[in-house]
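Q: Could you fold this chain for me?
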Amino acid sequence: MEKTSQPYSTVLETPFAMLGLVFEDETLIRIDYLEDGSVSFSSNNKAIQNISGQIKRYCEKTLDKNAFDARYELTGTAFQKKVWNQIEAIAYGQTRTYGDIARCLKTSPRAVGNACRANPMVLLVPCHRVVSASGMGGYLGKTSGKMAAIKKWLLAHEALH
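A: Sure. Below is the predicted structure, expressed as structure tokens.
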């Protein structure tokens, strides 16, 4: 669970975690998983209301084609952005292994995992859909605890069409 030094534009309660969203003007720049006990709050900003509504519909399985439509900016290295681009292409309800992505980018599964760990846009860049060759794998650098439980919830949620 991370917290950014920037104040959250909104904090959403979902069935799997509290989410802190950071916007700069109308652009989403980060989604963080927050500690249990965080207090949710909303905003009258249309861009914030738009993505908040989409996340709610994702949780309810009513998001059209389960595809998020939000203006966001990914901040990371050129390599991280290549990995995140591959991850964005993984369809709802599908998974790819770290090795699959590594072979495509001619790199190592560990490097892919490190890029997943640095993902600033959880859900929208669905790194939960990247799994190990022998099981679920880690999530944001953790293989147990709250992060593993979140990944398990997200994968199960998406598998039940």
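A (continued): The chain has two domains: 10-66, 78-159.
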